[in-house]
Write a structure and sequence with these properties.
The chain has 2 domains: 233 residues, Type I PLP-dependent aspartate aminotransferase-like (Major domain) (Aspartate Aminotransferase, domain 2, 3-Layer(aba) Sandwich); 123 residues, Aspartate Aminotransferase, domain 1 (Alpha-Beta Complex). 46% of the residues lie in helices and 13% in strands. The chain has 17 helices and 14 strands. Strand 8, helix 9 and strand 9 form a beta-alpha-beta unit. Helix 1 packs across helix 2, helix 7 packs parallel to helix 8 and helix 16 packs antiparallel against helix 17. Bound molecules: D-serine. The site of D-serine has 4 residues, from loops.
């Protein structure tokens, strides 16, 4: 054990024990929440570095505090690498996470009360895409489109809505939608009504960076936001990419508009992440994330499981647990937790059930792919999941499957965890 860990163990054994417990949980279980991943040891080192001590309000070369020679260099590297990776003209690397990132983007280009066309939450949109319970849903006028049968976007419907409500922003993006988008369709809608086209690719940022999913900038989007910790595999954080002429407004909206000092240890971690994501190994990982999702979806479909939209084109899928097993999403999440597979309950399109007891459960393959699991492991896991969900009360079965999952996990180390 290194000296810092030893010091923590001595000083605060309670917190030390919880961190050690979480390490064991991550090692012994399969992480299938599609927004989670294991970051790189190099990123963990940056997060735990002295950069966490530094206040850096402002931007490189224009700060409100002294002593910025190293933080300026870090932020410049992060911005340059992000622009290169995504083909963007400007990058703001300071948003603390996904929600502030989208809030800052909205306030950069809209006034309170302006209209945004975005995806309905139950069809896959995110809270910050105008859910009435979110602050953004109160500040801006979100009009929300739904997906058509099978999950496709009905662009005639989106166009009709846009002509009616004349949005300032047409937003493409989701946190629970297992298909890819035709960004040119959204661009056409935005052009027709003189709106900006913005994409929130928080979930698929890593897959877009690797070139295995479509990049909204290729369709001429104006603003693209992504978190840095999901498929990108970096530290928790947000990234706003945009056209050069929007850079000033975006930067002013992040700081001083919404935030104070950026977390420079995170910015350093993001810079490392963007460098990693440009390497051939990352492309191989991203291809495997998609192959694993296809294999897992095919296994579940073979088991007679009902998947929202009938399958997946990205890293995630949503099981309709009520239709498949006659249990709600919370019961399904708990049954899978008992066998060591972490997932999350999820609303499905026009779900008649409440958010804490919805009809669905959402799964994804980024984290287990980072550990090195492949299609063979997905087939085994899919079979175990179906067994567990068919008999959620069977404790002997759950115990046996828990043992199988633990044994499987032992063959796939978690990056950054030194011990098993
Ligand atoms: N919490 C993220 C997710 O799980 O999709 C989005 O904010």
């Amino acid at each position: 054990m290194d000296a810092d860990r030893q010091a923590l163990r001595t000083y605060d054994p309670d917190i030390f024990a919880e961190i050690a417990g979480e390490e064991t949980r991550q090692v012994d279980g399969v992480e299938m929440i599609p927004s989670e991943n294991y970051t790189y040891p190099e990123v963990l080192a940056a997060l735990g570095s002295v950069l966490t001590n530094k206040y850096s309000e402002g931007y490189p070369g224009r700060r409100y505090y002294g002593g910025q020679e190293h933080t300026d260099a870090v932020e410049r590297l992060a911005r340059e690498r992000a622009c290169r990776l995504f083909g963007a003209e400007h990058a703001n690397v300071q948003p603390l996470s996904g929600s502030p990132m989208n809030q800052a983007a909205y306030f950069a280009v809209m006034q309170p009360g302006d209209t945004v066309l975005a995806m309905d939450l139950s069809h896959g949109g995110h809270l910050t895409h105008g859910a009435p319970v979110s602050h953004m849903g109160k500040v801006f006028n979100f009009v929300r489109y739904k997906t058509a049968q099978g999950g496709a976007i009905d662009f005639d419907h989106v166009m009709k809505l846009a002509k009616q409500v004349r949005p300032k922003v047409v937003l493409a993006g989701y946190s629970s939608y297992p298909r890819d988008y035709d960004y040119t369709g959204f661009r056409k809608v935005a052009d027709e009504v003189g709106a900006l086209a913005m994409a929130d690719i928080a979930h698929i940022g890593g897959l877009v960076a690797a070139g295995v999913m479509r990049n909204p900038f290729d369709a001429g989007f104006d603003i693209v936001t992504t978190t840095t910790h999901k498929t990108l595999r970096g530290p928790r954080g947000g990234l706003i990419l945009c056209r050069k002429d929007l850079a000033k407004a975006i930067d002013a909206s992040v700081f001083p508009g919404l935030q104070g000092g950026p977390h420079m240890n995170n910015v350093a971690g993001a810079a490392i992440t963007f460098r990693k994501a440009a390497e051939p190994e990352f492309r191989a990982y991203a291809e495997q994330v998609l192959a694993n999702a296809k294999a897992l979806a095919a296994t579940l479909l073979d088991e007679g499981v009902s998947l929202v939209t009938g399958g997946t084109d990205n890293h995630m899928m949503v099981i309709d647990a009520v239709a498949s097993f006659g249990i709600d999403g919370r019961a399904a999440e708990e049954a899978l937790d008992r066998i060591g597979i972490a997932t999350n309950k999820q609303v499905i399109p026009d779900d008649p059930r409440p958010p804490l007891r919805p009809s669905g459960v959402r799964l994804g393959t980024p984290a287990c792919t980072t550990r090195g699991m492949g299609e063979g492991e997905m087939r085994r896991l899919g079979g175990w999941m179906a067994q567990a969900l068919r008999a959620p009360q069977d404790t002997a079965l759950a115990e046996r499957l828990r043992g199988e999952v633990r044994a499987l996990c032992r063959g796939f180390p978690v990056p950054g965890v030194a011990h098993a």
